[in-house]
């Protein structure tokens, strides 16, 4: 959907103040309580507790096999928990089959009914609710307009493009006005450009409908762009949960730092603290690293400093000696148009990734292959990780 | 030889085959049906006299007429045989569908390893001669056969099944069940499980999901299986002859009687030609259905 065709919603104004999870009086729409699910002795979900609030756009993010899809299927009713409870509006969903749950799912495969036209696919859930003919026709028209498929109502799914099928699947899932929409890798089958457009459409749609969305994805960008909060999963557990910016800028483990975006991780030994600064000794930098004091840092222990590529500056001229300084040779350059990524080989042989925004079209002396360069970063650019 | 000529030759081969083994025999039968019975060997007239040349051909053509067909429509026996054959085939098809659908459905729901074994089990009877299997059915159904011994052992009264319509239905259903099950299994097995999950998600109980999703999607298999059984059953000869006794009226038997008992070759040929045209309609329907499936790319 282009920006022109839809009246612009001021998502920012709503979103910047939206934080029901920090309000002690807010009641969650969905609550997972110590949920465990095993398949043939293998644990898919290992004790997950999670609250999702009305109106939230929540993302479950993780690699394949981390249990995120199982968690969603537990909510839809296709799986039953071995331990723990899943509650919807305070009511335990145990024993409720999928057809009685007021949540709808958009399947990764779309699962469109091949024998039904687009409009009858969308009307499927409405007919099941016993809605009248006229009302169904009206709702279907509304949905078709919402996903911009008005001209294709009489087509069969096999006559549609991938993007159009995705829209039909979306319209079919939201037509019965569920309490919550579950999206299982909704954009995985689309090409990059369409995927990016659709991310923004999903956000606008969610605002417009005021519906709660739960998205499952392995694509960190998709989760970061769309969601109010992200839960990063690993081996059946949630390892970190928070707003996208918090998870990106303050990962709590090397796993999260590495999974979300690119990162350089330096191992070191925390030494003395000097006021607000902690000094780390590291084999990579002769004068060590200076980082901002943080109450999680224990002096005298091994820790990892995670620095994002875009927070590292690349210099052709040697800067004055000091901490947070690395020397090396440009081994590779990746020009992405908006960004350029440099792979710098340190004397130790270690590869460091640095990125620079291409703010001006021409640079006097661009960094070139095999150039000797120095890398520096600010005291507050990195995050110290203890696990 | 040029490449184009060779391609043309390759296209000619099946045409030649069809001409030799289908069209030529068909024309022979068609010609026979237009002839008259005669006390001669072979028992029909006119015969084409090659030595007389063009005049002989003209005399031969003049001797052909539609009298035999007129006889068919006038005699109630033939009409009754047609109707009875269609009735047997139609009822047996419905029974096959009612039995075959649940069977195919259950097979498609089994784990993949078991599925292969079950498909083999369905095909297995073909390894034994069809005739032997029908004779085995006689052994089961005859008054002192296995069925009645079993009923007797259970303390139930004996039933007289052999040489009744029931025996014909049992024989037809038994012999044609694989032809119904396999096409149904093929469509049901291909059906994606997530469609049923989607239906459940949108508010369908398992039974509703079956009627709204599984069954409509299996209709091509229902059509294929039904036609695959119905068409040969109309002309079936062995089963009614062996299981149905002498009083059964079916077309296959009628043709046999005319040919061998009455030595009325023209009448037998005419019955066969009419049967052929009766069956062309369902065959065309079947092929249309298949073409539609191909077009859909499934």
What features would you describe in this structure?
The complex is a heterodimer of chains A (387) and B (298). By secondary structure, chain A is α+β, with helices and mostly antiparallel strands. Chain A has helices spanning 11-15, 68-76, 118-128, 133-146, 162-174, 192-209, 220-226, 244-249, 254-259; strands spanning 30-39, 42-52, 57-61, 83-88, 91-92, 103-106, 180-184, 212-217, 229-234, 237-242, 264-274, 277-281, 289-292, 302-307, 313-315, 325-335, 339-346, 351-357, 372-376, 382-385. In chain A, strands 6-7-8-3-9-10 form a 6-stranded mixed β-sheet, sandwiched between helices. In chain A, helix 6 links the parallel strand 7 and strand 8. In chain A, helix 3 crosses helix 4 (133-146). Chain A is globular, with a radius of gyration of 25 Å. With 298 residues, chain B is mainly alpha-helical. Chain B folds into 2 domains: 32-65, no CATH class; 67-296, MetI-like fold (Orthogonal Bundle). Helices cover 76% and strands 1% of the residues of chain B. Chain B contains 13 helices and 2 strands. Chain B has a two-stranded antiparallel sheet. The radius of gyration of chain B is 25 Å and the shape is globular. The interface between A and B is medium-sized, with 23 and 20 residues.
Q: How would you describe the oligomerization state of the chains in this entry?
A: heterodimer
Q: Helical element count of chain B?
A: 13
What pair of chains forms the biggest interface?
A: A-B, 23 and 20 residues
Proportion of residues in β-strands of chain B: under 5%
CATH H-level superfamily of the largest domain in chain B: MetI-like
- Let me know the CATH homologous superfamily of the largest domain in chain A: P-loop containing nucleotide triphosphate hydrolases
Averaged pLDDT of chain B: 88
CATH architecture of the largest domain in chain B: Orthogonal Bundle
The CATH architecture of the largest domain in chain A is 3-Layer(aba) Sandwich
Distance between the termini of chain A: 42 Å
Radius of gyration of chain B equals 25 Å
Rough outline of chain B: globular
The total count of helices of chain A amounts to 9
The CATH topology of the largest domain in chain A is Rossmann fold
* Annotation, overall tally of beta strands of chain B: 2
Beta content of chain A comes to 25-35%
């Amino acid at each position: 959907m282009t920006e022109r065709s839809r009246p612009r919603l001021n998502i920012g104004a709503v979103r910047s103040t939206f934080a029901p999870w920090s309000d002690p009086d807010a009641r969650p729409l969905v609550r997972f309580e110590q949920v465990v699910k095993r398949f043939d002795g293998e644990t898919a979900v290992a004790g997950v507790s999670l609250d999702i609030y009305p109106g939230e756009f929540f993302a479950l993010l993780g690699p394949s096999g981390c249990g995120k899809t199982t968690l969603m299927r537990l909510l839809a009713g296709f799986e039953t928990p071995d331990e723990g409870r899943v509650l919807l509006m305070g009511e335990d969903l145990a024993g409720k089959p999928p057809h009685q749950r007021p949540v709808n799912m958009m399947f990764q495969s779309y699962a469109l009914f091949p024998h039904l036209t687009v409009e009858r696919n969308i009307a499927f859930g409405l007919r099941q609710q016993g809605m009248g003919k006229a009302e169904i026709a009206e709702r279907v028209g509304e949905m078709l307009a919402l996903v911009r498929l008005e001209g294709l109502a009489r087509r069969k799914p096999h006559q549609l493009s991938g993007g159009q099928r995705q829209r039909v699947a979306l319209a079919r899932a939201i037509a019965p006005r569920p309490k919550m929409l579950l999206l299982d890798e909704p954009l995985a089958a689309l090409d990059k450009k369409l995927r990016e457009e659709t991310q923004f459409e999903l956000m606008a749609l969610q605002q417009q409908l005021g519906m709660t969305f739960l998205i499952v994805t392995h694509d960190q960008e998709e989760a970061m762009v769309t969601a109010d909060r992200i839960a990063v999963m690993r081996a059946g557990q949630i390892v970190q949960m928070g707003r996208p910016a918090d998870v990106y800028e303050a990962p709590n483990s090397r796993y999260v730092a590495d999974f979300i975006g690119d990162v350089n991780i330096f191992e070191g030994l925390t030494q003395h603290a000097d006021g607000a600064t902690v000094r780390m000794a590291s084999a990579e930098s002769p004068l060590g690293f200076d980082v901002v004091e943080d109450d999680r840092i224990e002096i005298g222990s091994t820790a990892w400093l995670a620095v994002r590529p875009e927070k590292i500056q690349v210099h052709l001229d040697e800067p004055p000696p000091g901490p947070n300084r690395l020397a090396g040779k440009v081994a590779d350059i990746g020009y992405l148009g908006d960004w350029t990524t440099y792979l710098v080989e340190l004397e130790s042989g270690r590869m460091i990734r640095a990125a620079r925004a291409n703010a001006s079209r021409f640079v006097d002396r661009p960094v070139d292959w095999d150039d000797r360069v120095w890398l520096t970063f600010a005291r507050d650019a990195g995050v110290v990780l203890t696990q | 030889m040029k490449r184009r000529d060779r391609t043309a030759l390759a296209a000619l081969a099946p045409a030649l085959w069809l001409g030799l083994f289908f069209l030529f025999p068909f024309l022979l039968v068609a010609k026979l049906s237009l002839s008259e019975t005669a006390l001669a060997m072979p028992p029909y007239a006119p015969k084409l006299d090659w030595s007389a040349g063009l005049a002989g051909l003209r005399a031969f053509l003049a001797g052909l007429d539609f009298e035999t067909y007129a006889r068919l429509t006038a005699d109630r026996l033939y009409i009754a045989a047609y109707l009875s054959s269609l009735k047997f085939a139609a009822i047996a098809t419905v029974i096959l569908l009612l039995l075959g659908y649940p069977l195919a459905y259950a097979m498609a729901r089994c784990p993949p390893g078991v599925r292969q074994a079950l498909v083999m089990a369905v095909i297995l009877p073909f390894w034994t001669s069809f005739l032997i299997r029908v004779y085995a059915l006689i052994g089961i159904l005859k008054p002192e056969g296995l069925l009645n011994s079993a009923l007797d052992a259970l303390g139930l009264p004996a039933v007289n099944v052999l040489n009744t319509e029931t025996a014909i239905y049992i024989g037809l259903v038994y012999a044609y069940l694989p032809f119904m099950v396999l096409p149904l299994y093929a469509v049901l097995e291909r059906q994606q499980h997530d469609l049923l999950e989607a239906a459940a998600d949108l508010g369908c109980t398992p039974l509703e999901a079956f009627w709204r999703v599984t069954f409509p999607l299996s209709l091509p298999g229902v059509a294929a299986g039904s036609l695959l059984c119905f068409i040969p059953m109309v002309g079936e000869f062995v089963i009614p002859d062996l299981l149905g006794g002498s009083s059964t009226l079916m077309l296959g038997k009628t043709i046999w009687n005319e040919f061998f008992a009455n030595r009325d070759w023209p009448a037998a040929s005419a019955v066969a030609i009419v049967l052929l045209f009766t069956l062309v309609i369902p065959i065309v329907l079947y092929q249309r259905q298949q073409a539609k499936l191909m077009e859909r790319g499934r």
